[in-house]
Amino acid sequence: MLNILTFSTAIITLFATTNALSIPSFSSLTSRGVACTSPTNHTPPSGKPRFELLTVATSNVGNLSLAGTWVTAAHNGAGSAAPLLVNNQSLAAIWKYNKARGDIFFPGATEKVGNKTEEIPYSMILYSSNVSTGIMHVGVEIGTGNSNFTFDPVRNVVSPPCGTFSACYLANDGVYGESGNVLVWHQGGPNQDASCVDVELKAVDRF
Length: 207
What we know:
By secondary structure, the protein is mainly β. The two termini are about 15 Å apart. It has one domain: Trefoil (Trefoil (Acidic Fibroblast Growth Factor, subunit A)), CATH 2.80.10. Helices cover about 5% and strands about 40% of the residues. The strands form 2 sheets. It has a 6-stranded antiparallel β-sheet with strand order 2-3-7-6-5-4, with no helix packed on it. Strands 1, 8, 9, 10 and 11 form a 5-stranded antiparallel β-sheet that branches. β2 and β3 form a beta hairpin.
């Protein structure tokens, strides 16, 4: 089980300047008014069932130094975590994939259901935000996400079913309430923000 509360001082420092993180309300992919078609079949990453996620730039616009970072998760509330980006691969979260739901997740707590003990996953999900048109959010929440992620079977990379992932440096700007390098999500074409670079997530099999 991955302990999302155990991080180096460097990770903790990212949150030293902010209060509790503000997480927008979850909204399903079908209720955003976004013109997109979610996949009906979900392709898992090739290789073994556990993997890490590396950000790979898809654009030469913005802060290219943020690409090549690893996705981890830091606890930010009850059953909730923020998708931080770190340079040190040893701090990367270890993810799994559910091809029935298209969920990227890691094992969390367990619960007793009848005579069986079942695992409760922490799933990567996409949030809409009413702060500004086209500004979105990535969260890691306890439970199933039904997020419709699907991997490119040739390149072993994944992008959101609608919109684009970005690696962004956030300085507690009030939109996300987070500080540091964070994985976010936006609609439309390439991100023009100088503090971000558009990325996809490559599954790296080390296990």
